[in-house]
Task: structure prediction
Amino acid sequence: MLDDVLASSGEARQRAFDAVREMLARHETAEEMIVRPLTRKAPDGERVAEGRMQEENRAKEVLAALEKMDVESAEFVTTFTEFRQSVLDHAQAEETQEFPLLRQNTDAEALVKARDRVMRAEEMAPTHPHPSAKTTAANYVAGPFAAMLDRARDAFSSSDK
Result:
């Protein structure tokens, strides 16, 4: 999906970016709500969870800035190219640091339940980045309201097209 943004132009680039933005906003919110608390329970989990939260909080800021840019601008392309790499680096950190820690310290049944909870949380999560939601608690408190506003925003913007 990330490559689709850079490989397209015009309205196609906007649609590709909107899809990436929504997927990342939903996915990262769900991870922050469900996965990070599990990670924190593991030995050295606080350090690992905090590292991923810092990456995600920075990503929310960049994604919010990208949302305001013209997708055809050089600034968008440069910023998105850097953002793309940070997303890939974040995913790599999850795969090499966080997920092995969870597999080693969380029973299989709890991991299956967490996966299912992540999928449900993604369905209800905000569709736009909210940089002010910097903690798991903030996502639980502000998330439902932000998601409702995001869906209204999305409905209005799609009716404008």
